[in-house]
Amino acid sequence: MGEQKKGSFLVDTLVFTKRSIITIIRNPLIFIPNLIISLFFLFVYEGGLSGISELPAFEGANYLAFILPVSIVSAAIGGSRWSWASVG
Fold this sequence. Notes:
It is built from three helices and no strands. The protein has helices at 9-26, 32-49, 63-79.
């Protein structure tokens, strides 16, 4: 068996990032539905639950500051099901 060449982590990361970006540009339908669904839930949760920040226990905390990262993670997890499309 031959010896495997080891690339640096940074080079490998850049190669996979470039491959993923090219895939998204060629087929934006991989990314757009996840973005739309996440934005929809962001607006629904912000509109329906933002009043919770006015309760005394929350001391005026900004609900959007909590729900925005949740929405971003949701979009990323939803997009991961298409990650196989960039392998090949």
